[in-house]
Amino acid sequence: xxxxxxxxxxxxxxxxxxxxxxxxxxxxxxxxxxxxxxxxxxxxxxxxxxxxxxxxxxxxxxxxxxxxxxxxxxxxxxxxxxxxxxxxxxxxxxxxxxxxxxxxxxxxxxxxxxxxxxxxxxxxxxxxxxxxxxxxxxxxxxxxxxxxxxxxxxxxxxxxxxxxxxxxxxxxxxxxxxxxxxxxxxxxxxxxxxxxxxxxxxxxxxxxxxxxxxxxxxxxxxxxxxxxxxxxxxxxxxxxxxxxxxxxxxxxxxxxxxxxxxxxxxxxxxxxxxxxxxxxxxxxxxxxxxxxxxxxxxxxxxxxxxxxxxxxxxxxxxxxxxxxxxxxxxxxxxxxxxxxxxxxxxxxxxxxxxxxxxxxxxxxxxxxxxxxxxxxxxxxxxxxxxxxxxxxxxxxxxxxxxxxxxxxxxxxxxxxxxxxxxxxxxxxxxxxxxxxxxxxxxxxxxxxxxxxxxxxxxxxxxxxxxxxxxxxxxxxxxxxxxxxxxxxxxxxxxxxxxxxxxxxxxxxxxxxxxxxxxxxxxxxxxxxxxxxxxxxxxxxxxxxxxxxxxxxxxxxxxxxxxxxxxxxxxxxxxxxxxxxxxxxxxxxxxxxxxxxxxxxxxxxxxxxxxxxxxxxxxxx
Amino acid sequence: xxxxxxxxxxxxxxxxxxxxxxxxxxxxxxxxxxxxxxxxxxxxxxxxxxxxxxxxxxxxxxxxxxxxxxxxxxxxxxxxxxxxxxxxxxxxxxxxxxxxxxxxxxxxxxxxxxxxxxxxxxxxxxxxxxxxxxxxxxxxxxxxxxxxxxxxxxxxxxxxxxxxxxxxxxxxxxxxxxxxxxxxxxx
Lengths: 620, 187
Fold this sequence. Notes:
The complex is a heterodimer of chains A (about 625) and B (about 190). Helix content of chain A is about 70%, strand content about 0%.
């Protein structure tokens, strides 16, 4: 176990702290999942109502246009037009009731509501089912390519150990062992990806193997395998496809305006037709999914370009602008309501749901390993470590801990001047060792230097004498150039003492590490793409809270003192700002309502206008 | 339409029948899981038996003075393989003797630092360590499944018909007395 990382007192270690069994924890989280699923469903319905209100008139407009064009060449029967106007009348009844508080018969009202809502809702559900089917058979190949995952090497002791640990955990869970792939990234993290337990893969970064002990690795992998066994992948797949459907809706509405969304649509259609072909189709699927997931954002480049006033006017362009004008309102309304509702209602409820799944997976991990300390110490180590995985942003919710966007490999990202000094010192230290390797590191190539440095540092930690000598040389060279920077490199004497079990040296090293972590914090900005960018609430529960729950199941994590003062400050602030917040939400809802109504009005005018023109042509 | 007493009787009988069938199926499913879990232990025990000769061969050259330890392992393995045809109780005893002998071997191997430098030995040891873990986890899973199965049999609705239908409590794979005796803390 991790004696060295958790110097708990004897009393702490042997006093029973098992206040909640992992079975109880699992049961509680399963119940919470049910509650939150209902909440998510409710959120989808709430989001669906304005969406359907916007999409349905658009659909009617398109079908009216088609009917008019058909009518021009093959005149339709009067009965058809009769029925169409009947449908429109029911819609107006509902609208009148809503806006002018006109009394209406409940039957007519129900039909009116159905007329206004059903076509849009049906279209959305069909699109969602289509998305599910489309990405289901794509599998995880594209994702693995994007992460640059590779097969483990059975000759390497650590990678063999990883394979063994996964087999062990699968046996403990009574599941078939998922396949494992490795990423050679600078961050330490791991994820379970896939669409169902059948095609699940576990992706582990090589650095995790080097940083964690066997017990900790067991805990981390048990979390992932427990998560697969609990069916989290299927939940994640469904949730992602909801957001992708929203992106697709935006792309469809946008398509008359911009080449970008037309290209996205075209890619999806091409992929849907030729999807059964293997090869790069899986990669294509991953790319399309990423574009769609990002589409919920508020970027309107296509529309901006469309109504760009600086471009020179022509009559044709003016006519086109005039014809497409109502769709501009439809477009903005749909984007605004998607952005608002997915950010304020759907996003948080999905995030809460996903958090309970993470807690559940933690409890399952404790059930599998019967060793809560392993997972607790793994979580602590990973959260303090660099855990960013390049190209892993779209799936950040699937990772064991949130891959923060800090620069992996190095600790705090040094500025330009510091980079130069560090690289110079590193090169100088190589020169003192042997002249041949000095040519390898040029001061300009800072990333390579960092990679090399962390490799040497790892070797030094495991007791390689040559690596320790190299570190010492680098430290001396650095202190000649910049003493402040030199203080950040661990002292070799401390490393040696820590290996002998010297408490003071361990304390110094840990202090250094915490200082690095503190330096790094401000750079952890929010994710810019992927599911977690959709809402302000993170998809991962805070590590501290996870540790607290593990502690309740018997782990010996040092939680630190709870900050009561911070709570009070937060409460006071929220009390002060709550009215403003409510006003802001009300304002947004009002704005969305206005946009929906104007979209409706303009579409109606437009429909009447187009219909009259076609009627004029049809008569002559 | 009036609901006749016969109809109510038939409905109740059908409900009870469905209830019994569902309970029976649940018990069968649990029993299958227990058997499955037992098969997994079997696979891992066999894996261990297959790995041991390789390890013994690999370390024999370095551990000339530990002949008795190596022989104890080989002997325990033979006995465990012989017990493989016996019942659960017999097997768990033989296997825990083997676990003890292997633990002894690993403890002794700590005294030979030159072994750490031999990669093939390290890989073998990792495999054997992992197999030990797998056996432990398979046992844990088996015991959990047995617990669920036995609880399902002895709780109310199902305990009425579990015995008549031929379900009986399954035995846990417990640590034998010899294994417990091995845990001695020397201060």
